[in-house]
Write a structure and sequence with these properties.
The chain is an alpha/beta fold and about 325 residues long. It is elongated. It starts with 5 loop residues before the first helix and ends in a 19-residue tail after the last strand.
């Protein structure tokens, strides 16, 4: 009990006021405590069986314990776990969804960003036109399959990769082997990733074939007419739209979730506005394009207008005042 409880808490040193309880960190101590509860029930039976019929005592002690234990637990723990009157997660999630234009795609980062948004869509049927894409789960084939289906009013993600091309054990990582300094259009890059040509693979020492890419320098060509038509950028800012966006992806390799994000970028053609929840400061979570973000409400919108990086680590992109 000490080593699976107090010792683990001392060793991991969790900070207070987490977004949610981390009781699972000490689940081992719960098992031991449950064993003690069992010993206690048996001890009551042993102490009382000499005063009445042992069978009746066994039934009585079992029934009373089954009622008493959860009652005591509820009375002791209810006030610690009661969430009534706490609306931070609810309002934060609503603000995220309200920040998006119609039929948008929003990339969420981690559990705390995602679960409240799922609740609003699943339970309250709110802003079901938005496609939520959890970038962590996006590394699994079953989740990608879900994203490629229509959910409520939200269209499937724009994607060219098929299930066989990203299934478990396939395209888990694509490695960068520098062979060219040329800057590839992101559409051509995805054609390379999707290709079955033997020249797009290399063989490992174990005899496995792995995908590689010869350059990490990419370019996204901007269709200005589509950007304005679909409301990605307002007419008053049309003069600031750049003809293309040059960006450098990871120089080591790309995991499956990043490849899928680039797949969306290459096939979206500005039909859907892309948003990020801002739950991370990692460059790859924003497709290496932090200078092309616009803070709309609580979410970061991807737009083809360049805003040089600010000195503050969390100051990304621009604000449309």
């Amino acid at each position: 009990f000490v080593f699976t409880g107090f010792a683990i808490i001392f060793y991991t040193n969790p900070k207070p006021f987490e977004p949610r309880e981390r009781d699972y960190a000490i689940v081992g101590s719960f098992y031991i405590f449950a064993v003690w509860v069992g010993f206690g029930v048996y001890a009551l039976y042993e102490a009382l069986k000499k005063f009445a019929n042992p069978k009746l005592i066994a039934i009585a002690v079992s029934v009373i314990s089954l009622l008493a234990v959860p009652t005591v637990m509820a009375s002791e723990n209810w006030d610690d776990h009661d969430r009534s009157g706490k609306y931070t997660a609810h309002f934060n999630a609503k603000a995220y969804l309200d920040s998006c234009q119609e039929n948008a795609i929003m990339f969420t980062i981690g559990d705390n960003d995602t679960f409240p948004l799922w609740y609003l869509q699943e339970v309250e049927n709110y802003r079901t036109d938005i496609k939520l894409v959890n970038t962590s789960l996006f590394a699994t084939d079953w989740y990608i399959d879900q994203m490629k289906r229509k959910t409520y009013e939200a269209d499937p993600i724009p994607s060219q990769l098929t299930h066989d091309q990203y299934k478990h054990g396939t395209l888990d990582v694509a490695y960068h082997f520098p062979q060219s300094k040329a800057r590839w259009d992101v559409k051509n890059f995805m054609k390379w990733i999707a290709s079955d040509d033997e020249r797009t693979y290399f063989e490992t020492q174990n005899g496995y074939k792995e995908k590689f890419y010869p350059t990490n320098k990419l370019r996204l060509t901007i269709d200005k007419e589509a950007v304005l038509k679909n409301g990605i950028v307002s007419e008053k800012d049309s003069a600031n739209i750049v003809p293309y966006i040059d960006f450098d992806i990871d120089a080591q390799g790309l995991t499956k979730n990043r490849i899928m994000m680039l797949d969306i970028l290459a096939n979206n053609d500005w039909k859907h506005a892309l948003y990020f929840t801002g739950g991370s400061n990692a460059d790859d979570e924003y497709l290496w394009m932090k200078e092309y973000l616009q803070l709309d409400g609580l979410a970061y919108k991807f737009i083809p207008i360049k805003t040089p990086s600010q000195s503050s680590m969390f100051a990304m992109g621009r604000v449309d005042s």
